[in-house]
Design a protein that fits this description.
single chain; 958 residues; mainly alpha; six-stranded mixed sheet; 6 strands; globular
């Protein structure tokens, strides 16, 4: 008899992390997350060019082939897995939660988004909020058509509706396939069970199906009776698995030992589940399991029919049960020499009355178990539980010492995902700072407002929290209520506060201070601190209160994460420095992108209101534009109005704001005359718009519909070709939805940023900037300077369109996409990969010009573009040993080959004119292209290549 009873499972657990992952769509997915964290997320960028890691553009000095080879090693396919998870699971609730927590879904690397959404959903599960996916157009009739079965269709409809998952044709067909396959399994023999356990397979539908047929060739020994001396030890393992010790479970253990299987809690659970399930499986059971799998980002084939809870829910349940375990249960388990697992301890806590401390309390084993349990409580979070469960770890039946190690390792993995590029110790420290900061920022609004009285420019949030907690304890000891930092001005403070401060207005009058809500709150804060109420003190506290509130509103988890990545600890940085940091973070292009998105959301919500007339819509847009204009003046308009002695109202503020020098948006609004407009006069008069609709407008924004729209756009952005991924990886751009969408459309002849804006470019600013760029192609310095003009011209056209109140949501969405393409192009330009406009046959085409080199002076030129006339064109040029320039132009269109070859004389002449080099050019179909890798190409200097590019582009511009 081969008896393998495993008590110390550290080695086994580590092995299981590699091979046992029942809740993942593929074994590659966890590796994908590790790969992306360690290798893919090279730097963090918002696609505005704000690079936060000096190693961002380390592609310089490598050929295209070098970088492609490098990323092949890094498992490019794993990044696609991440995008599959995101496209299947990102719901409007997820999108809204990301924004609420200060994250920008479009600008986050996809792998980071999956990690952060996991963290958010784990917190939601802890709060008891139901976790669901998203569901588009669930139609039973359509499902019946796809499946060919009303029974299958109804089961799928029920399950997909319950978990709100997408009834895409792919998901439906895969679920139906699992239903059909599972109907083949008439029973599940012991030989198949042995196969599952012996190969450490997850209990997923695909593995169960495989085991049914693969296990049929195995011979099965008849279970042997255990020796009496072994029975007690076996019973302990049965208890540790959370099973009842009876004839059935003992027979299952005997069966395992007879088959030569290791008798562990996890293996025993598998045997028990499989032996007690009825095969073939019920179709509704299969549909429910596949819906849960899809909701968690997996494929239907990876569904586990035995796992009835969503893993988020299970993670939260285990966390709550762990916090409730009492010392008596722990003492009882150690005293009885029972397995010390969370599941066993939770059962003892629920079923046994509290015991009096015994003489056994000083036992070494008990002390060790208490220490391990305490360490688990300190390390355990719902998010950590969820990640471990996703790996297939049965954390509630693991020995405590193994669970401690698993939680530590998980903390390290999560830290390295959120803080890539650092060593393990540094990333864990940063992650702990992040957790501490987010916890404190969540608590701060509930601390006494009295603490504002201690604030000055040198105060930190860490100090504010410590002092606030001290005040809170004092109030609690006296059983007194208190006004909080987060209390809204004039909020419900309780009768005792109202009565205590009923003479505040009189105090303000005596101090010769205006009676405002903010000043009244300042008086209360001074009084809480028993400080003198003077005009100067009121002003100081009012300013401190405003500073704390404004800074605290910006300390979202997303912003906090980025600050710590940038080396700024938000708990230890004083308020003056924090404000300076926050003000410096956004570039002009990034601000334009956000402004455009915000305006698009505003227009979207207006258009959702079907009851609104055109006049009403025009009026409220005018209000929005006016407020936006005043905000852009950054306080200058207020100062100018006050200094001139005018009344502080919207009309006077706007008059002051439009006297300032500003961008195109400012000037467009400034053209509006606010006074003496005749009836039926200029329709865009802001004063008239406000007068028309200010009183009647009802805010009917449909936030959920907008979030659903945005989530859908992001899901679609993650469905891209491998070529798009290759391009981003080639230039080491993070895989964000914005970058994926921008890269996809930059190469589209009709969808690139310049083609989108041509109809708005009445002054041909973009065309002229593109021509100037071509003329500047002499060296890198001139090209970089000219490229800024391309960016500026394109930005101005976007701002011109923004200034038009007639713009629809579709127009604004197009501008948003244009901004994202412009941001990506700006990032690429830093790597000498320029995306510039070129007019070909009356259409603005986005031409990519890349100088790729192995040293400061030598390299190879690549040019690519897409047009209706020439198709998708790609070219590469280098200088050979004989001082002759050699290269090719390729196209994906057979009929365009002759058009390209007809330009040969012009191309060669322009290359000779601009660079002084003779050229030998080949013309071929795209699939026949072989990259140039001849040893002599290093002889081409970077300056040569810029001039060659100038000659080629002039050939197409003519």
């Amino acid at each position: 008899m081969n008896i393998q009873i495993e008590n110390n499972r550290i080695g086994k657990q580590n092995m299981q992390e590699e091979v046992y992952k029942p809740h993942l769509p593929k074994n590659d997915v966890e590796r994908a997350k590790q790969t992306q964290a360690q290798n893919g997320a090279i730097f963090t960028s918002n696609l505005s060019g704000n690079v936060t890691d000096q190693k961002a553009y380390n592609g310089q000095g490598k050929t295209k082939e070098d970088i492609q080879d490098e990323f092949a090693v890094k498992d490019v396919a794993s990044m696609q897995d991440y995008m599959t998870v995101m496209s299947n699971t990102l719901s409007e609730e997820d999108y809204g939660a990301l924004w609420e927590n200060g994250f920008e879904p479009g600008r986050m690397p996809v792998a980071e988004t999956v990690t952060v959404v996991d963290e958010i959903k784990a917190k939601m599960a802890q709060a008891g909020i139901v976790i669901t996916g998203y569901n588009d157009d669930l139609d039973v009739a359509k499902l019946s058509e796809i499946t060919g079965s009303d029974v299958y269709a109804q089961a799928i409809a029920n399950a997909f509706e319950t978990y709100q998952v997408d009834a895409s044709e792919e998901n439906v067909k895969e679920t139906m396939q699992q239903m059909i396959r599972m109907q083949e399994l008439q029973g599940f023999p012991d030989a198949a069970i042995t196969y599952v356990v012996a190969n450490d397979l997850p209990l997923s539908l695909d593995q169960i199906y495989k085991a049914f047929y693969s296990g049929s060739v195995m011979t099965q020994e008849k279970p042997q009776t255990l020796p009496q001396e072994m029975q007690a030890q076996v019973d302990k393992i049965i208890e540790a698995a959370g099973l009842v010790v009876n004839d059935t479970t003992r027979e299952e253990a005997q069966f395992m030992l007879s088959a030569g299987l290791a008798l562990t809690q996890q293996n025993l659970l598998k045997v028990d589940l499989l032996r007690n399930e009825t095969f073939p499986l019920d179709v509704q059971t299969i549909a429910d399991a596949t819906a849960r799998a899809i909701c968690e980002g997996n494929r239907p084939a990876q569904a586990n029919v035995f796992e009835k809870e969503l893993l988020y829910e299970k993670a939260a349940r285990i966390y709550d049960q762990t916090q409730e375990i009492n010392d008596s249960a722990l003492e009882q388990a150690v005293l009885d020499k029972s397995p010390v697992t969370l599941k066993a301890l939770s059962g003892l806590t629920e079923n046994k009355a509290a015991m009096e401390p015994s003489l056994f309390a000083n036992d070494t084993a008990l002390i060790r178990a208490k220490r391990q349990l305490e360490e688990i409580r300190l390390q355990m979070t719902v998010s950590a539980n969820y990640q471990l469960l996703k790996k297939g770890m049965e954390i509630d039946i693991m020995p405590l010492k193994d669970l401690v190690e698993a939680l530590k390792k998980q903390e390290q993995e999560t830290a390295q995902k959120l803080f890539p590029g650092q060593d393990t110790t540094a990333s864990v420290d940063a992650y702990k700072t992040y957790q501490s900061a987010t916890d404190i920022f969540e608590m701060l609004p509930n601390l006494p407002a009295r603490v504002i009285g201690t604030v000055d420019a040198h105060t930190t949030f860490g100090e504010l929290h410590a002092t606030g907690q001290q005040f809170a304890r004092q109030y609690e000891q006296l059983s007194q209520r208190y006004e909080t930092i987060g209390t809204q001005v004039r909020g419900d403070l309780g009768d005792h506060i109202t009565k205590a401060f009923r003479n505040v207005d009189e105090v303000l009058a005596n101090a010769n201070v205006e009676v405002t809500q903010e000043n009244e709150r300042a008086v209360r804060i001074l009084s809480y601190n028993q400080m003198d109420v003077t005009a100067e003190a009121i002003a100081r506290v009012r300013e401190a209160d405003q500073t704390v509130r404004e800074l605290l509103s910006q300390m979202t988890p997303g912003r906090t994460l980025q600050m710590i990545r940038d080396g700024v600890n938000p708990l230890e940085t004083d308020f003056a420095s924090l404000k300076e940091y926050l003000d410096s973070q956004e570039s002009e292009l990034s601000a334009l992108t956000k402004e455009t998105e915000q305006y698009g959301k505003f227009i979207y919500n207006l258009e959702q209101n079907g009851q609104m007339t055109a006049e009403e819509k025009d009026a409220i847009i005018g209000i929005y534009r006016m407020i936006h204009q005043i905000e852009k003046a950054d306080g200058a308009a207020i100062g100018a109005t006050v200094a001139s002695g005018q009344e502080l109202n919207f009309e006077n503020l706007l008059k002051a704001a439009r006297t300032r020098k500003g961008g195109r948006f400012d000037k467009a609004v400034a053209d509006v005359d606010l006074t003496n407009q005749p009836a039926g006069g200029y329709r865009n008069s802001i004063s008239k718009q406000i007068e028309t609709f200010f009183d009647s407008y009802q805010d009917q924004q449909n936030e959920k519909a907008y979030q659903e729209e945005m989530a859908k756009i992001i899901r679609e952005a993650t469905s891209v070709t491998q070529e798009v991924l290759d391009q981003l990886m080639l230039h080491q751009i993070p895989m964000t939805p914005d970058a994926l969408l921008a890269q996809k459309q930059l190469s589209d002849a009709k969808e690139n940023v310049f083609a989108r804006l041509k109809k708005h470019d009445s002054e041909q600013k973009i065309k002229k900037a593109g021509e100037k760029f071509i003329d500047s192609l002499e060296d890198m310095e001139n090209a970089q300077d000219a490229y800024e003009d391309v960016q500026e011209a394109t930005t101005q056209v976007i701002e011109d369109v923004l200034a038009q109140s007639e713009a629809t949501y579709i127009d604004i969405r197009s501008l948003v996409v244009s901004c994202k393409q412009l941001s990506l192009a700006n990032s690429l330009a830093k790597e000498q990969a320029y995306t510039v406009p070129l007019e070909i046959d009356g259409t603005y085409t986005a031409v990519s010009v890349t100088i790729r080199h192995q040293s400061d002076n030598h390299g190879v030129l690549e040019i690519s573009f897409a047009s209706e006339k020439y198709g998708e064109v790609y070219s590469q040029f280098s200088l050979q040993e004989d001082e002759q320039l050699r290269g090719y132009l390729s196209t994906d269109k057979e009929e365009a080959l002759s058009l390209l070859s007809e330009k040969n004389d012009l191309i060669c002449a322009n290359i000779l004119k601009e660079s002084g080099k003779t050229a030998d050019v080949l013309y071929m179909k795209r699939e026949k292209v072989q990259s140039i890798k001849e040893s002599g190409f290093q002889k081409a200097t970077v300056s040569d290549l810029y001039k060659v590019a100038k000659g080629i582009l002039k050939s197409f511009a003519e």
